[in-house]
Amino acid sequence: MSADLHGSQRAVETLVSKLRRRQVVGSREAALETVLVLRQVVSKARFSNIDQLISLIRSVGKRLVEAQPKEHSVGNTVRKLLHHIREEYNTAMTGNASSSKTVYSISNFVLQGQPRKQNVAPKSEATLTLKENDPDDPDSFARVLKPVLMEAIQDVLDELETVYDNISKNAKDHIHSDEIILTIGHSKTVETFLKVAAHHRSFTVIVAETGPSYNGHEMARALSSAGISSFLVPDSSIYAIMSRVNKVIIGAHAILANGGMFAITGSLLAANAARVHSTPVVVCAGQFKLTPLWNLYHDFGALDFADPSSVLGFEEGNLVDKVDVLNPYYDYVGPELVDVFITNDGDHPPSSVYRLIKETYDDDDHEL
Amino acid sequence: MPPKSSSSKEKDLTDEDEVLQAVILADSFNKRFKPLTSGKPRCLLPVCNATLLDWTFESLALAGVQEIFVVCRSYPELVKAAIRDSKWSKPSLGLKIVSIITSKETFTPGDAMRDIYTRGIITSDFVLVMGDLVSNIRIDEVVRVHKERRRTNKDAIMTMVVKPSGVVHRTRSKGESAIFVLDAETSECLHYEHVTGYPPKKHAKIPREILAEHPEIEIRNDLIDCGIDVCSVEVPSLFQDNFDYGDIRRDFVHGVLTSDLLMKSIHCYVAREGYAARVADTRSYDSVSKDILARWTFPLVPDDNHPGGHSYEHIRGNKYLAKGNSVVLSRTCKVGSNCLIGAGTHIADNANIQASVIGQRCTIEANVTLRNVYVFDDAHIGAGSVIEYSIVGSNVKVGEGSTVARGCLIGDDVILGKNAKLGEFERVSRRRDEGEADESDKEDEDEQSEDSELEEAEARQDSESITAIIGEGSNAIVWPKGPRADEEDLDEVERYNNQRLMRIEIPIGDPASDLPLEYEGTESDSDASERESDESDLEMHALSRISSATSTSAISTSTPGLNIHTLHDAAAYSEFQAEVTQSLDRAFAEGHSVDNAAVELKTLRMASNVPLRKVREAVVASIVERIEVVEGDAAAQRREISKMVGRWGPLIDKIGGVDPVETIEVLQYHCAKSARLPLFGQILAALYQDDIVEEDDIRAWHARPEAKGEGLKDTSFAENVKRCWLVGTKMIEQFNEQESSEEESGEEDSDEEEQPSKKPAAATAQAAVGKKEESSEEESSSGDDESGEDDSQDSEDDAPATKAATAAPSQPSKPASTPASTKESEEEESEGSEEEESEDDALAPSQPAASKPSASSTTPAVSAAPSAPPPVPAAHAPALVSSTAAPAQPSTQDEESSEEESESEASDKEPAQTAQSQAPPAVASSKQPVTAPSKAESEESEGSEDSEEEEESEDDAASRATEPVPQAQVSTPKASTETARPPATITTQTESVATIPAAVPRPRPGPDVVGVGQPLRPQQAAWRRHSIHFGDKVLKSGTTTGEKARRVVTTAGRQMKKGILTILRRNEREKQSTR
């Protein structure tokens, strides 16, 4: 058993160092890895009550988040999992299978308060099936709960795996025939979204090159290979071209609680240009990118500055010594620049992101 | 996605069930960081507040290394403790770190490698790094490439990681870099040459074989050597076998690449992505720190993946402040960009901090100015101090109002008093208590040298001026500046002047920079010439031009050295000789194959460490002595010889290095001593027959002073040598005859024959060349003929002795530093090779004699002809040098030769006179001893073409005769500036490539008969049959024509090969003797 524990510890450390070394990049990738590690941790864990389990997961989550605070999806996944575990636990404890997923609306939100609090039923020690802190058989609690938990974790995993399809399912409702769409970067979500829409509609996509990573090249290649008529334009012409564009569809790295988001460099440029031309900005993102972070005054480092080599070659010895090159990987796009978020959980305006976050995570977990 | 693929690669590696091992040499083996490293090893110095060892571990862990051996020498306990306390030893990381403590006698990386070998810890391919590496390069990718290569090529034993940088780059060490010659396609490292900043290196030597074997090569001096090597298992064992390998680059890589026995290859991995650099000196400490702060090492940056486990917040302007609110910054203090401030540090009012790294728990008081300063932990900088471009050790206390100028190193625990004033490049450390000093003496025997240095420093500490430097109440001692007393014992790299280039400093190019460029320049001249004479049988002048003169000068100078050496180890040689004879006897008796015998000889040579020439002598001697003497029957004798030579001749070339000229010389000297003297001619013919020597070689040998027995005191021996030489003379005559016989009338032959009787020794040479020239170019125009004659005259003057050369006006312009005597021999030799070359030139067009223009257009020279300066007059130059030198001769000579001309007498005389009338300008041109003659000769072939067009216009020729002189002068300075350029110019990558086509093979109908009556076979100019790619610069500067370039390269290449072998041998010997 200790070997198992050691094994799960090892898995955590491996992921930690991979995150630190940027061997796992991309929010979905990181989220998937996190779920897998957490599944291993839970399956190997020994606990006799829910608090032990939760504190265990939180400690693991803390380690992972500290390893790479800029990969927000790691923390989001941990939070989501904790939320699911609590839910399962509550269901098991109360014995009734009432999913009690009441529908929220802005009108009754304040009255309803926290979703969890409403769900929580008074803990009944009398539950036969589940007994915490059983002195005779300390493992009984875990033994009974574990299968349920594994199912919950599997749900999260499934959700992550089907996220692109779920987001794209309404694609044809967002894109109309003969529209001109502008996109930037190479977001898998956006790519799938556009490809699915192309089944029903014919439209044109303008892809910005997205320097200095030039992901736009891949994006344009991927789209045109799917039969979508695509144009690749330099970033500098985004503004000039904006008047012809019907819609800007971009991906996000993380959606913040205030409705703003981190997205690949250049997104701010595109979003601002769109604002000037009153072109709608549509953001496609999985729910796992919802981050309970009120980033009103985001800190400078959050933009994740990468190495300057893609901007200025290391060979330019003379310049290297004299020029400081900043190469931020992300832009912070404020909520006022975004019109709608399309998630696998429906479409939401930036102003209701906070509510989504409240639904998705437990308040206790905002600080892991 | 790159991470994905890399992780799958990692899986691949583990799938093979091979644990990736790494060896860290955690000792610097030098003292560049003293006094910061007195008291702790270099690998524990902090860079951006994490120890170098942590950075190295992180770099390796990135690559998925699972097992790390840390080889420590000095302060092993500290290293061990550091590893034990670090996060790396946590079992959950899956890293297995083993520290190995080597003995104090480990002075070089080579010793450490031998230690690794004896411990037998290496089981598979491993990564070898120094303990001062900062890298984010994907080493696992390098390992994968290496393993893939190993699958097909077992001899690829090592892959070095190099990173391209610009010509000027802060991270590329000026004091210690290298020239890499890479195959452009396979990036195999073909040649490695270490470059020191001082004395500045201006020449690179590149073995000719490289040019012959590889269609495209890159010669690069812009690579940062990252110090990451992926090695195969046999690398440590190679160190074990070659006990004198010290440095991994200078000895091991260079040794492996130049070895003619090992047959191993080393590759380079040119890392386009990623960053890697070594903190090898204080300058690179500075640049690597800056690179880290500028995020070149991403994701190894302070705010992301800090190896020391600290967490920093990245704020605008690449400033990094420790997280957790432990840093106290005064409201009025200024923290500029590119700064890193450790946890717990207090910075007081109005302090100004620019581009500095400050450790943990430091206190910076009010009004302090820090610019480019690296402050280690727990330091205290007193109010109002100003520190620039320096490194301040941990726990240092700098008193109020102190100034520390650039380049200072302040050791740990130093206390500087109030108003201390450290000058530039001062090094101070803490004065030790008496008891402590004694103790450490007992404890660390290996620190002896350091102690002596310290004591010396301590002894000087009493004067008042010192107190002024370090302030009142200081516990510091100031280390001596300037070169150390035992400077001579040091490695070239470690010498003071070179180390100056490796200190933390204001960036290069800054007007305030202290780099003494003019100083470098003045010393370099004498230095270069010194080196030229002592080690450079072959110097390639910055690759741009090699005059045959330089290469030969080296040979003539190196020969005496060899002779002295011969006396020295005579006993060893005779022993070796006996062994060789024995093994050859056995080989002859038992009928071994030539290859086996060659291997045996190679081993013998390695065992007794003798130069190649000795082996050659032994082999030649054995072969010659084996030939049975058949009295009276010439034919039988001939059969005997050809049997012997046919069977064993190839062995001469298989013993490791082909040098036919030397072979002939060896043969000559042996025959002169032996009873088989009469057989010399026949043996030589047999060698020629078997293509072991070729016509050119015989001519080259013939032209050498040694061949004539010059300088030999033993009269009978000298006589015999002379006789052999005369045999060679005859042979060359026959070569000439053979060419001319088709076209020549017999009358001319007889004419020629008369000459030797008049001037016994000298005329033969003249006849040899002169006749051939005439005969081959007989049908060509007058101007061409004339040049041929001039040349023959010239060689006549030069060949017998250096009389003419000495008589020639002094030549001050170009190789000013080379001594006059060298110049003579240079000239002589260049003439000698000219003879040889001019024959080639002449021969090529002569074959299809009827269609001369088309024939000559096959020679590469013609392609460059249009751009070349008017060729005919240039061709005159060398002739005129000699004609002024010996005024009596030329006229008669001209007359004579023009008389010989059977067909074009009239047209011939005229130019001859013209030539004389041109004497004064030609003298002027003779000031360029190297370029002018050789250039002239190179243009002969064009001359033939040109003059055909302008046959009638003698006036024209005369008027143009004055032209080339200024032109030649112009070209010479250009060439010299080209060579004088710093090594950086070598970075010219071979992008614009001039391809020089192979020489035209010269099939020669051979009904002619050599002295011994054997038909000659068509000669193969195989050694020329390759193409060479060169930067266009090279061509321009060195020569005017492609033909010339080819010649330059080939002659140089031949010499170079020999030269490198000699150097190697000498180095080996020297090392042994020091041992």
TrEMBL record, chain A:
It holds the Pfam family IF-2B. It is found in: Cytoplasm, Cytosol. Its main location: cytoplasm. Keywords: Cytoplasm, Initiation factor, Protein biosynthesis. InterPro entries: eIF2B_beta_subunit (IPR051855), IF-2B-related (IPR000649), IF_2B-like_C (IPR042529), NagB/RpiA_transferase-like (IPR037171). PANTHER family: TRANSLATION INITIATION FACTOR EIF-2B SUBUNIT BETA. Belongs to the eIF-2B alpha/beta/delta subunits family. Component of the translation initiation factor 2B (eIF2B) complex which is a heterodecamer of two sets of five different subunits: alpha, beta, gamma, delta and epsilon. Subunits alpha, beta and delta comprise a regulatory subcomplex and subunits epsilon and gamma comprise a catalytic subcomplex. Within the complex, the hexameric regulatory complex resides at the center, with the two heterodimeric catalytic subcomplexes bound on opposite sides. This is Translation initiation factor eIF2B subunit beta.
TrEMBL record, chain B:
Coiled coil: none annotated. Gene3D superfamilies: 1.25.40.180, Hexapeptide repeat proteins, Spore Coat Polysaccharide Biosynthesis Protein SpsA, Chain A. Keywords: Cytoplasm. Its main location: cytoplasm. Residues 968-993 have a biased composition (Polar residues). SUPFAM superfamilies: ARM repeat, Nucleotide-diphospho-sugar transferases. It is found in: Cytoplasm, Cytosol. The keyword Cytoplasm applies. Pfam families: LbH_EIF2B, NTP_transferase, W2. Residues 801-822, 843-866, 874-883, 912-929 have a biased composition (Low complexity). Residues 566-745 form the W2 domain. Residues 429-467, 507-539, 736-1028 are annotated as: Disordered. Residues 435-456, 520-537, 739-754, 775-799, 825-842, 893-905, 939-956 have a biased composition (Acidic residues). InterPro entries: ARM-type_fold (IPR016024), eIF-2B_epsilon_N (IPR035543), eIF2B_epsilon (IPR051956), LbH_EIF2B3/5 (IPR056764), NTP_transferase_dom (IPR005835), Nucleotide-diphossugar_trans (IPR029044), W2_domain (IPR003307), W2_eIF2B_epsilon (IPR044123). Belongs to the eIF-2B gamma/epsilon subunits family. Component of the translation initiation factor 2B (eIF2B) complex which is a heterodecamer of two sets of five different subunits: alpha, beta, gamma, delta and epsilon. Subunits alpha, beta and delta comprise a regulatory subcomplex and subunits epsilon and gamma comprise a catalytic subcomplex. Within the complex, the hexameric regulatory complex resides at the center, with the two heterodimeric catalytic subcomplexes bound on opposite sides. This is Translation initiation factor eIF2B subunit epsilon. It comes from Somion occarium.
